[in-house]
TrEMBL record:
A Pfam family matched in the record: GGDEF
Lineage: Bacteria, Bacillati, Bacillota, Bacilli, Bacillales
The protein, known as: GGDEF domain-containing protein
Domain of life: Bacteria
GGDEF domain: residues covered: 129-280
Alphabetical keyword list: Membrane, Transmembrane, Transmembrane helix
Transmembrane segments: 12-29, 61-80, 86-107
UniProt source species: Paenibacillus albidus
Cross-referenced InterPro entries: GGDEF_dom, Nucleotide_cyclase, Rev_trsase/Diguanyl_cyclase
Amino acid sequence: MRRNRSGLVSDLTFLGFLVLVYICIVFIAGSPDHYIQNIIILNVAFLLAVVTYFTTVTAGLVLNLAFIFGYGFFILYQTLSRGETIGINTYFWLLMTPILTVVVWIFTWSSRELQLENEILQKKTANLATVDENTDLRNSISFQKDASLFTGISTRYQIPLTLLVVKVKYWSEIRRLIPEEQLADAIYDVSQLSQSSIRTNDALYLLDKEEATWGLLLFTDQDGAKIVIERIKLKLQELNDNEFSRKYKVNLGLKIGAVQYHADTIENPFDFIVQAKKQLEYDV
């Protein structure tokens, strides 16, 4: 409801600004005797509106007040020195200039409200998303949900469950060597490497894209996990000899840690990840 209101206000104020500009153009065209003066004042009015757009309504209104006093003294001078009367031209600009400023400020305020709401929605979407947009892999949020289910199955049916954490060695240095547009491709390629090394009933997760870290939930014990680790490292070596070195000009290395689930030592999915990451220290 709030988003719709902000959008409606933004649309109406923009339309109102266009109407006011049209009125100014018609007024200037209907007063050929004061053409130069009206054009100058119109430029001043636009300048005040632009200042309001990039600052605050307070600054805009203060500048409008200064303009009104300056313009008032100018009209008073002409009246006293030349005997001219105060016409509709004077009243028009004294009203139109602050109106333009206020309309622009309302448009600015509503636009910023929409931008703020858009940023909030984007953050909420990112927090609720369970699939990485580049690799189509389930992320850490999905892992938190799935791990509870997997550990429940493991406990109920006495099926061993092991978490592998896979991380690219020296990723912070490697990402400086790989062009920015190829980083997503590198993560995708390593993801595919890991995906092809597990069974269909196992699950692969991209736990941390910035640190190039994956998690693999395997229905197997430590010995079975070692087989998967060897399989991954063997395929990585093959790819380094062929695709990776040619495509990214570097050889990628992996650190892999594994921990088997035990209900008495692992309290929650986050603890599962932490304990598996500790095992990375032993893979040098």
